[in-house]
Amino acid sequence: MKTEIRIGSIDNFFESAKQTAREIDEGKKLTRKCTIWVEPSNLNELLKRTEQIQYLRNKKKITVRQMAEDMNQSSASLKRVMDL
């Protein structure tokens, strides 16, 4: 199943859902998909979190300080983004 990240508003999300519902009503065979809608104002936050998740996947144990150094961020900035 493919995952797609789309940038748009809540109105864009509902328009997409309505289009999918129309296709179902018309009896069209749909391809399974996963779409994640992100408001433009939240895109930067999503990208930061994605970068952190990728970094952490390869670590067994890490301190916030070490992670901040490796990612060229301050510990305070990293904690704020991670909601610690």
Description of the molecule:
This protein has 4 helices and 2 strands; from the N terminus they run E-H-E-H-H-H. Helix 1 (10-25) links the parallel strand 1 and strand 2 (33-38). It has 84 residues and is an alpha+beta fold. The model has no long low-confidence stretch (mean pLDDT 84). It has helices at residues 10-25, 43-57, 64-70, 75-82, and strands at 2-7, 33-38. The two termini are 33 Å apart. The radius of gyration is 18 Å and the shape is elongated. Helix 3 packs across helix 4. A two-stranded parallel sheet has the order 1-2. The chain folds into 2 domains: 1-38, no CATH class; 43-84.
Keywords summarizing the entry:
84 residues, 2 strands, two-stranded parallel sheet, 14% strand, alpha+beta
Question: In a nutshell, what does this entry contain?
Answer:
The chain has 84 residues and is of the alpha+beta class.
The value of Rg in angstroms is 18 Å
The end-to-end span amounts to 33 Å
Q: Number of helical runs?
A: 4
User: What percent of residues are in strands?
Assistant: 5-15%
Q: Reading side by side through the largest sheet, how are the strands ordered? A: 1-2
The major pleated sheet works out as:
2 strands, parallel
β-strand number = 2
Relative helix content: 40-55%
Mean pLDDT equals 84
Number of domains: 2
Extract low-pLDDT stretches. Answer: none
Name the overall outline.
elongated
Give the SSE order as H and E letters: EHEHHH
